[in-house]
Amino acid sequence: MDPEQRKRSTWGRDTTKTEHFVPTEFYQWHIDERLGTVTQLPLNDTLPHLFQNYNATEGMTGEYSILGNLGAPRYQLNFLDRPLADETFFFISPYSYFHTSVSNLLYTNTKSPLTNLQYHTCGTRENGQDRVRAYFATNINKLAGFGFKLDYLYGRGYYNNQANSQFGGTIFGYYRGEHYEMHAMASWEHSKMGENGGIENDAYITDPQSFPQSYGSRDIPTVLSSVWNRNDNQTYYLTHRYNLGFYRDAEVPDSLKPVMPSDNELLKARIDNDSLRTVISADTIRLQLVMDSLKQQWLSEQVTPQDFIPVSSIVHTLNIRNLSHSNYIRSGLPTDYLSHAPYYRTSYDDFNDETHAFSIRNTLGLQLREGFNKWAKAGLTLFAAHELDSYELLSAETNDSIDKFQTFRESHLSVGGEIQKAQGNTLHYKAGAELWVVGDKAGDLDINGQADLNFRLWKDTVHLEAKAQFQNITPAFFYRHYHSRTSWWDTSLDQETRSRIEGKLTIDRTNTSLRLGIENITGYTHFAMQRTPVYSSDGTTISSYTNDVGVAQQNGSIQVISASLSQNFHAGIFHWDNSVTWQRSSHAEVLPLPMVFLYTNPYIVFHIATVLRVELGADMRFFTEYYAPDYAPLINHYAVQDASIERTKVGNWPIINAYANFAIKRVRGYVNVKHANATDARTFWAPHYPIDPMSIHFGISWNFYD
Q1: How many other CB atoms are there within 10 angstroms of residue 114's CB atom?
Q2: Per-residue pLDDT at 28
Q3: How many CB atoms neighbour CB 441 within 10 A?
Q4: pLDDT digits (tens, 9 = 90+) for 453-465
Q5: In the chain, % of residues over pLDDT 70
Q6: What integer pLDDT is reported at residue 331 of this predicted model?
Q7: How big is the chain by its Cα radius of gyration, in Å?
Q8: Which pLDDT score, from 0 to 100, does residue 5 have?
Q9: DSSP secondary structure of 162-175
Q10: What distance in Å separates the CA atoms of residue 159 and residue 224, rounded to the nearest whole number?
Q11: pTM to 2 decimals?
Q12: What angle do CA 281, 283, 286 make, to 5 degrees?
C-alpha cells in the first residue's frame, strides 16, 4: 500500500504523519501427540457460520448428550466418534468440551501479535452461564513464537445444585528451524462440578399438571445437594527433533530472477574513472575483453537461493501429566441412596475422597522422510516409548480419623512403526502399529490405517476415504481399580478386542458426504448401574432404588453398524445444512445407542452496507428414544442402566434454537434463543436430567492485532 494512501485528514489528528500499517496475516497448526508431527490448518478463525453453537456443551451440531448445564460431563452420541477412555486421566474425559490436550492446542505464526477475546453469557445471577476466553500469540522472529490461552466458565445452572466452574491456562512456544524444531506447552486446569443426582420426579417435567402448584426449574427438588466432584489436571509437554538433509537450489520465477545490467550500466557501475571508461570504449577489442570479465564477475556474485530438504529426523517427545480427583460431600447422602455402608468408614457425612494419578512418557523416534530413501519411498517412522504410571487410591487401612493411600505403579514399554504417503494430490495413505512388549500391558496391540483417493468425475471433485483399526488392549486402570468411601473395586479383566472398518464418500460440487462404518468388540468393558429396590414401611411397595455403580465386561462380541449422510443446499441467500446418522448395536442393553440422531439448519445470509454479514436461522437437533446411559455422580461418569429393573428412556424431542449471527471486520457476535420450543414433554438429555428451559444466549469474539 502506498504510504500516501494511509494518511488520514481527520480533525484533531496531525495529518503530516503517516498512520502505522499493521499486517494481519497468520497461519495455525496442530501437532501429533506421539511424535509432534505438524498438521497445517486452513484459516477459519474469522468464519462466523455456526458461531452461535461454538459455546454449546452439546457440540456444534448436537452430537453430544449432556446433563444440561454449561461445561457439564458429556458423551458422544455417534459411537464411531467416541475415543477410547483416557487411561491416566479417566475423570477428565467427560470434560472434552473444556480440556486442552496436546493434539487440539493451536500454534500460531503471525506477522503481528494476535489476541482473540470471547465472551458468552445467558441468564441471571441465579441461573446464568458465563464463559470468558482469551488467546494470545506472537512471533519472536520468523522461526519462533509463543503464546497463551485462558479459559474460565461458570454455569450456575437452571436447576438446583448443579453449579459448574472451570478454569484453565496454557502457555506454549515453538521453534521451527531448518535443522532443529521444537514445540512445548504447559497446561493447568481446575474444574468443580456440583452434583444434583437429577430431579426427584420426572413428572415435574413430563406432567406438571399432576402437582397442586406450578414449579419453576429452580423450585424442582433434586436428589442430591452439597455433593461435588473436583479435578486438578496439569500437562507438561515437549517434542523436538533434529533434521538431517541437504540443500538444493530453489525454484525462482523468471520475474524474480536477477537481470544482468546493460553494457553501459555495468561499465559505469564497475569502473569509476571517467577517463578510463573513455579509453576502454574507444578500443573495440579491449572493450569486449573488459565486458566479458565484468559479466563473469557479476555472475559470480549472484547467490542462488537454496532450500533445505530434510531427509531424516531424530525425534524425542516427553509428556508429563498429573491429576488429582476429589469426590466430597458436605451434608451427607440421602437415606438408602446406596445399598451398602461406607467402605472403611462409619458415615457418609462430610467427607472428601481423593484419587491421584501421575504419568511420564518418553518416546524416541526415527523418521525417514517421504521420497528420499530408496527403501522407504513413502516415508517411514520407527519409535519406542516408555511410560511410567503411578496411582494413589484409598487403602483398606483408612478410617474415620486418617486417610491412608495405596500406591499402584505400572510400567509399559512399546515399539511401533508408521508408513505414510502425504505428497501428491491423488492418493494418500498412512498405516501404523504399536506393540507393548514389556510391562503391565505386554501383549497389547494397536494397528491402524487410512487412505484417501481424490479425483475429478465430470465437473465434480470426488474424495474417497477408508479407515481400518484393530486393537487388543488392557482396559483402563480405573476399570480395574478404584477405591472410595462410596465405590470400591479391584477387578481382573480380560483384554478388550476391537476391530473397525469405515469408508467415506464426499462430493464437493453437491455438498454431499456419506460415511459407513462397522465395529466388532469382544470383552466390552463399561460402567453399569446396580439398582436395589427400597421398600416402603409396608414391606410390599417399592419406594425407590439404590444407586450403586460397578464395572462390567461383556462376554462375547458386540457389533455396531453406522451410516451417516450430510447434505447441504444453497440457492442465493438461502442455505440448508443437514446431517443424519443411523446406527445399531447388537446388544443395546450393554451398549445403548440412539438409532437416529440428526441436525438440520435452514438459514439465510445477507450483507448490510457490504461490510456487515448477517446470518438468520433456526437449527434443530434430535435423537430417537432409547435407554440412554445414566449418570453416576459419585464416580463422575456415565453408566449403563440396570436392565433387571424398569428403565428410563429419553429422546424423541426436537431441540430448536433460533439465532442471529453477525460479522463485521474483526468482530463476530450472536444472539441465540435456545430450546425455543420448550414445553411440557419428555425434554431430557439424560435420565432425570432435563434440558434447560428456553433461554437467550449472547456471544462476541474480537480479534486484535499489535
Answers
A1: 23
A2: 92
A3: 20
A4: 988 888 788 999 9
A5: 94
A6: 82
A7: 31
A8: 41
A9: --EEEEEEEEEEEE
A10: 12
A11: 0.87
A12: 95
